[in-house]
Specification:
With 441 residues, the protein is of the alpha/beta class. The chain has helices at 4-13, 41-47, 58-71, 82-93, 107-115, 143-153, 177-190, 201-211, 220-229, 255-268, 279-292, 295-314, 332-335, 345-357, 366-369, 397-412, and strands spanning 28-29, 75-79, 99-102, 119-122, 161-164, 194-197, 233-237, 248-252, 327-331, 359-360, 362-364, 385-389, 421-424, 435-437. The chain is globular. Bound molecules: ligand P71.
């Protein structure tokens, strides 16, 4: 716990960017659910069985078996985390000038696609950009948008379809099984590859079980494996669903593409049997993969996010509906309806929430969206959101009560917020290290 004076000092020193705060100055840390999960006793035990051989660690084979068993892909290389895998797949599967259609962007994913010369195209359904739409599968692809891109550019100009489970920037919104089947069918017609960002795919499986006809009696594990079976491969940040502090992977069914991945991984990550991880990290990941598909675990996890959503809803706080898998996304446009997007309302909300309560959140709006690589202008996303992200197996219901009270108090005083001015803008993924001034602060 900190005093308001201490937080004022810490926030100013951090340039009002929550990524630049010291964790010791944070009371309840809802920055991210990435690598911040509590490992289980079994995962900690697995750490102690690390086989730290340079090549062919026993833990690699445990990890490989876990990915095959749970996700169903044939071949896998470990990477240090998700973006390591994004780097590899982008370098392997994108030729400069090719288009990469996706169900909304993710920051690191698009960065790697663009660095490989790809042109990102958003083909998610319109409802995804609307915070009040209660569509049950706001992560779905709009097939007409995808088909018209293929018709306009030609199938040979499409690198691959980049499909993400529970779309992060849309509010943790799921993709339906009907959608992935339809995208697969379309890709088959045109001979286009379909790759999955499986980072929060277990949470996606939960929503399919709950909402999609024909899946109520299937297990999370069955649904996950069926979904993956429609795709040609996947990349993963294991720091989310798989309950580890570090780790990721790239899986591919095609032996030739896999051959390239296994070769390229040694340049950027490490040998193909460790990919930038210690043996113990792969051991913990193998256990985490198995734990992640336990029905009780996933129900409790999403239930906790919903609990916070219910408290905020009862207080009339605006946030993205329906509640997604990993976070509550406060709608900063409605929260601070007097602030123009150039005043960075979502960044402001994250800063003010910290100043007021010590709760750390993350901007997911215009700062995160960066600039258009062609024009240099700000990308202006319709969604201007501040994410309250719930780590897995870490916080209690009482913590959620405190967070809800903090947000309610801030909402009551919302008219006094004046916005922020960006004073330092890094070239890549600017949101991580950008700095701001707080007029009158
Ligand atoms: C999250 C993160 C971590 C993060 C990344 C970038 C900005 C802020 C925070 C990481 C993801 C993700 C999806 C869908 C790939 C990655 C990269 N998310 N796909 O949400 O959510 O994985 O962080 O392991 O490199 O806080 P990586």
């Amino acid at each position: 716990m900190t005093t308001p004076e201490e937080r004022a000092e810490a926030a100013a020193a951090a340039g009002y960017n929550t990524f630049l705060l010291r964790s010791e100055d944070v009371y309840i840390d809802l920055l991210t659910d990435s690598g911040t999960n509590a490992m289980s006793d079994r995962q900690w035990a697995a750490l102690m069985l690390g086989d730290e051989a340079y090549a062919g660690s026993r833990n690699f084979y445990e990890f490989e078996a876990a990915v095959r068993e749970t996700y169903g892909y044939q071949h896998v290389v470990p990477t240090h985390q998700g973006r390591g895998a994004e780097h590899l797949i982008s370098q392997i599967a994108i030729r400069p000038g090719q288009f990469v259609p996706a169900n909304m962007y993710f920051t690191t994913t698009r960065e790697h696609q663009e660095r490989a010369g790809g042109v990102f195209v958003d083909v998610i359904i319109d409802e995804a950009h609307d915070p009040v739409s209660e569509h049950p599968f706001k992560g779905d692809v709009d097939l007409e948008k995808l088909e018209s891109l293929i018709a306009r550019e030609g199938a040979g100009q499409i690198a691959y379809v980049s499909l993400a489970g529970t779309v992060n920037m849309a509010g943790g919104q799921p993709v339906s099984m009907g959608c992935v089947r339809a995208v697969r069918a379309l890709c088959d017609v045109y001979g286009i590859l379909l790759f999955l960002d499986a980072t929060r795919m277990v949470e996606n499986a939960f929503f399919i079980q709950e909402r999609e006809a024909g899946y109520a009696d299937k297990t999370i594990a069955e649904i996950l494996k069926e979904f993956c079976s429609y795709t040609d491969g996947a990349w993963m940040s294991a720091k989310k669903d798989s309950l580890v502090n570090i780790g990721g992977w790239l899986a591919l069914n095609d032996p030739q593409l896999f051959d390239e991945a296994r070769n390229l991984v040694v340049v950027f990550e490490g040998l193909h049997t460790y990919g930038g991880l210690a043996g113990r990290d792969m051991a913990a990941m193998a256990v985490g993969i198995a734990e992640s598909v336990q029905e009780d675990h996933i129900r409790a996890r999403i239930g906790q996010v919903r609990y916070l959503g219910e408290l905020l809803d009862a207080a009339g706080i605006p946030f993205v509906k329906p509640v997604g898998g990993h976070a509550i996304f406060l709608d900063a446009r409605r929260f601070y309806s007097h602030l123009a997007q150039d005043k960075f309302p979502a960044q402001t909300l994250a800063a003010e929430l910290y100043l007021d309560s010590g709760v750390r959140s993350m901007e997911r709006g215009i700062v995160s969206a960066g600039r258009d690589p062609q024009t240099g202008e700000h990308n202006r996303p319709r969604l201007e959101l501040t994410r309250l992200t719930i780590p897995r197996r870490v916080y209690t219901q009482a913590h959620m009560d405190i967070v809800a009270e903090a947000v309610e108090a801030l909402y009551a005083g919302r008219d006094s917020a004046k916005g922020l001015v960006m004073t330092y803008e890094p070239r890549y993924l600017r949101f991580f290290q950008a700095r701001f001034d707080r007029p009158g602060g």
